[in-house]
Amino acid sequence: MRNILLNTTAVAALMLAMGPAHADMAAAEKFLAEEINGLSVLSEDEQKAEMEWFINAAKPFQGMDIKVVSETITTHEYESKVLAEAFSAITGINVTHDLIGEGDVVEKLQTQMQSGENIYDAYVNDSDLIGTHWRYQQVRNLTDWMAGEGKDVTNPDLDVDDFIGTSFTTAPDGKLYQLPDQQFANLYWFRYDWFNDEKNKADFKEKYGYDLGVPVNWSAYEDIAEFFTGRDLSHLGVEGKVYGNMDYGKKDPSLGWRYTDAWMSMAGMGDVGEPNGLPVDEWGIRVNENSQPVGSCVDRGGATNAPAAVYAVEKAIDWLKQYSPPEAAGMTFGEAGPIPAQGNIAQQMFWYTAFTAATVEPGLPVMNEDGTPKWRMAPSPHGVYWKDGQKVGYQDAGSWTLMKSTPTDRAKAAWLYAQFVTSKTVDLKKSDVGLTFIRESTINSDHFTERADKLGGLIEFYRSPARIQWSPTGTNVPDYPKLAQLWWQNIGDAMSGAKTAQEALDSLCEAQEKVLERLERAGVQGDIGPVMNEEQDPSYWLEQPGAPYPKVENEKPAGETIAYDELIKSWQ
């Protein structure tokens, strides 16, 4: 992912001026004046009061060295390069905030779970692991922590209710297991200027019989991808070949997220339900009434290899091959992310809003001279199996996670840092840099009202009720680290042509069930762990109401679009 460039010289000078690491109100005031500089939802006095609380709460831990870790995105770079040093100067707790790949974060956490060795004092760990954390009980649940052992280091002004993503980090037991640090959604991205061009609109209408606009279904997305691929847009000053789709296909851990991050639910594979389908979720895993996983393959009532899943994978592969730059098939998530900003992509269905900061840089081919973007974001279209009430898209919620294997004093010091980087004092400035919103107060601030027209629909989306319909992986997934790695390996076989989509998904659901069966035999997750269904003829489950669904005879119905400006009204 291309990240924004921080003025590291200025940051270094600021930190040097703050002096050595010891609790210091003068350092706090300098930080507030020179870094926050009024960009906060709190008044100046409220900011100082919050910093004073951090200084006092940190006194027992002064001089302690702690290590935390997160994946590498713009928001976390800002935390690592700016906020960690500021926190150290203000509180006297020395923080090393490591930045590594998301797959590596999961691997480190898994190692700590298995070994009990304290590798990191806190993790910014995706809420996709909520089902894992709830079942294994190896992380401190924050509800009990804040009321008990961690009460003396819990900011009275933390305001948990102000966080927009806590429903994603709360387990079926009603406990909060993780505190959101950054969130971004998977939306549809398109060239607003190209879609509004009169020649493009007339030519599209003549060829396909309906209006060029934001696609509502996958049929329209496919028509638009076909229309723009190879199209001559010289009348708009566009040079080079244009493509109607952007994606990635390298056999890499990020290929798994490409599919588990709600691609299957967008196709219509799972059951109705918010924030995730029940009893069958977007991984195709079925649970019983006690939230215990009972199967993944169709013959146990799962949907991972159902017709809707096959359709989802086949469409993605077809569009990658036919309508995307040739090099996209060999790219990872991070490598593919910046490509639309280069100016030759018409649309991308699977686009993460985490790329917004890098896509609004002045001088890019996708930016106007007045600082407004030539592109917009909108809800992603849905596949032919999708029904009203099903999950519509994915939202990443990277969240602070405290392992029980971390010594209490170190967990307390790390919890102070986690609250500092998510505090109301800091959050507006952090969000201005990374555009990964976690607080209602930040989203509704006057600052983002003024900035909204420069961000392509991001603020409108996050201010709308629609944002709750985009959700992370839910609690049906009992062991994210073990199951997630099966996805990219098996989907990779379909992408490379080594297997058909059906063969790859048959292998995937069988591999998932082997993990579920091992967990059942081991009994390590108690009475909320898997209890597998008996295998039956697939026709039995395909004839039952809900997922898995039988094959649809016509998987490409008529295309349907909506005008972007009408769509935005529905968000308001």
UniProtKB/TrEMBL annotation:
Q: Where in the cell is it found?
A: Periplasm
Cleavable signal peptide: 1-23
Q: Does the keyword Hydrolase apply?
A: no
Q: Which parts form a coiled-coil structure per UniProt?
A: none
Membrane spanning residue stretches:
none
Pfam families of this UniProt entry?
Answer: SBP_bac_1
Listed A to Z, the keywords are: Cell membrane, Lipoprotein, Membrane, Palmitate, Periplasm, Signal
Give the UniProt family note: Belongs to the bacterial solute-binding protein 1 family.
Any idea what this protein is called? ABC transporter substrate-binding protein
